[in-house]
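Co-fold these.
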Amino acid sequence: MSDLFDLQGDVAVVIGATGVLGGAIAEGLARHGAKVAVLGRNADRGGARVQAIEAAGGKAAFFAADAVNRESLVAANGAIEKSLGPVTVLVNAAGGNDPKVTVTPDNPVENIAIADWHANFDLNLVGGVLLPCQVFGPAMCGRGRGSIINIASVSAHLPLSRVMTYSAAKAAVLNLTSFLAREWATKGVRVNTITPGFFPAEQNRRLLFKDDGSPTPRAQQILGHTPMGRMGEAKELVGAAVYLASHAASSFVTGTDLRVDGGFLSQTI
Ligand SMILES: NC(=O)c1ccc[n+]([C@@H]2O[C@H](COP(=O)([O-])OP(=O)(O)OC[C@H]3O[C@@H](n4cnc5c(N)ncnc54)[C@H](OP(=O)(O)O)[C@@H]3O)[C@@H](O)[C@H]2O)c1
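Predicted complex below.
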């Protein structure tokens, strides 16, 4: 393996590694030598992820944590330091849309309850980025070494129809990433985003596929707008994550957004 992408000596926390995209990233970082802390709320899926990493020869452990709860993140941080060592990489991959804040003809903009807006903002921005950075960032700054990777969305750039709250929160993820990149630039901590295009996962399955597995009209629209004409596979995010995690490969890269979207954001019509 090239030294440029060698993560031996790194301890990577992946929040949302119980999910599809975070899971693929966790497995990829482990394949490149990082010890991986699988974080999420679902212990069954977390355990399965750890098993998959270990079966491939990697090292991982599951830590139950709720990204929107500071105490649970602080507890996880302490447990990770004890069992895997000081954290050097943080991947923030918890998030998703919530049907309650999806704008439809039956649920127009003016009907969206502010409490539901706040809950989705809390997941995607506060738990999705801010709280984990507050909990894991200072120790990385103190040691002068760290890479934080936040997962944005194409909807952060120009909003997709229907997902009003999610889009606004993900736009804020880009902005907050730039802020933190500047704030911690001289402290050895780099902060970047990956913007995934469309990848079948749990939180969007019903949006993309009918019961018989065929694409919904919305999925067809998405495919029509994607120059590569297909959706991504989660493993196609690994290269971007390993690059941004590796200090050797991306030592002068901070505040950037790396698009892995099949060209989705490169065209209008
Ligand atoms: N799939 C796509 O096409 C796509 C495109 C652009 C961006 N994204 C973003 O990529 C990230 C991963 O999504 P995914 O598509 O992989 O969906 P997913 O399979 O549903 O995974 C999302 C994960 O987030 C975790 N999560 C949710 N709330 C949490 C909380 N309060 N605390 C801790 N973990 C929490 C869940 O883990 P637990 O249930 O174990 O807590 C779940 O495993 C999200 O930020 C999503 O917005 C996805």
